[in-house]
Amino acid sequence: MKYMLSTKDTAKPMIGRESSYTHVITVTSGKGGVGKTNVVANLAVALSRAGKEVLVLDADLGLGNIDVLLGLVPRYTLEHVLAGSHHLSDIVIPGPAGIQVLPASSGLPQLTSLSDAQQLLLQSELEEVAKTVDVLLIDTGAGISPNVTYFASAAQETVVVISPEPTSLTDAYALIKVLCRQHRERRFKVLVNMVKSQRDATQTFRKLDAAADRFLHINLEYMGYIPLDDYLPMAVLQQKAVTECFPHSPSSRAFVQLAGQIAEWPVPQLPKSTVQFLWRQLIHTA
Known about the structure:
- The chain is of the alpha/beta class.
- 43% of the residues lie in helices and 17% in strands.
């Protein structure tokens, strides 16, 4: 079954056919300010236009803002789900280009670290919703908090967003180090954001990759880069994805190319083929 939503529909999703598999991708960063949420929003729109059914989970549970970025006004959020008063299917809202969004709350510090009971509840709810889409994009908070590492470890693919700033690189390395040593994660994709050129992007990536290779003995995978683009802040002011309102801008073209790359990723293999398995493994090994 799949949710069939129009961008004007505010009612509950309609039930359609079930997806054969769900690709779970967590997008995270070591520090704030690198454009991670913008990356998630625009990738979601680009993937949807490439023919994928896309669900975005705003997993920055204490400072969620993807709904604000896209000009959405949710009636209910993950706060209501974790409180037990609503189901995830109750809070799904339609976004641009047919994407679906699970909004988080903002200004609730008690949600910055989920309890075991909340993790179990979210796992059970997310299993039902996620199997109705092709791609589940998880937008985490920044840093190395338990929530960030929890959602990063739960995904089949972890995308770390970095920028050329030195603090971005050191904090991204710290996040990768925690996920590698404490959660046994060995595979990371890296997207360089807000750079002037391809040369700057590859140089930025190589600095992080060299540190990971030397001290963690892992090799990172370079996904590409999103260029600095004056149209991006203009889109933010309009509360729209740049791929939606400025489809021919440099950043939009980069997002479309990146979405095409993701759409060609192979079908997830067992055991990381169901969200239910992922969350149960995390909880049992915590």
